[in-house]
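Chapter summary example.
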Amino acid sequence: MTKQALFENIRRKRSFLCVGLDTDVRKIPAHLLRSDDPVFEFNRAIIDATAAHCVAYKLNLAFYESLGAQGIRSFERTVACLREGYPDQFVIADAKRGDIGNTSALYARFFFEHTDVDAVTVAPYMGEDSVRPFQAEGRWVILLALTSNRGSQDFQLMRDAGGECLYEKVLKKSQEWADDEQMMYVVGATQGRLFLEIRKHAPRHFLLVPGVGAQGGSLADVCRYGMNEQCGLLVNASRAILYADSTEAYAGEARREAQNIQEEMAGYLSGIAK
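The structure predicted for these 274 residues follows.
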């Protein structure tokens, strides 16, 4: 999916919601456990219920890999479900990969040849050769820049003698590898006004923003400080949508929660997505 196509979806749906399919088999409704693939059955119902209100889905690999081979199968089936039924959705593998070049190439082969996702989240620590294999034609790298977890302060906010933070160095250097048509950045919603600093270095890039809701991030602040002329945001919500209800009515409650978020987002888009 191109950057323009993503923006057109945002404008059409009046939404920049990314639904995080971080599906914990221990939290899904009990009646699904009787099926052969409960994680996939849960995901499929969530997708059917929320697709009208979002423009992207993000699948965190940890939730699937923790289940072994069956979990990988659930991951593959979920991506196939999106590709076949909802081809306008931007599909992200939240894998946080990043290794020497030949190893990264094999990771990329799995995600792009076997599951056909649009983007993979990648850790920048090992540098250019660990990132380039994920820049297959028409695919996106989503590079970790300034994350929402408490430990982000340990390294990402470290300053050099000139006062520049490590995350700023990541933003500046990585733009030598790809432009805003092929690279996004992960910036946690809990970072507040630091979005202004992010935008100084990456004014046109899309930002994948976790941390709204359960982690304490503010959607209003993210939009106030991080939105650009093409929205430039994919704001992720996971637990608030997935586990809005634990009964057989879970999909309907997930739809209502996604719609509530979408309606709030529509207000923030009113000035740019006409």
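To summarize the output: Residues 21 and 59 are 5 Å apart (CA to CA).
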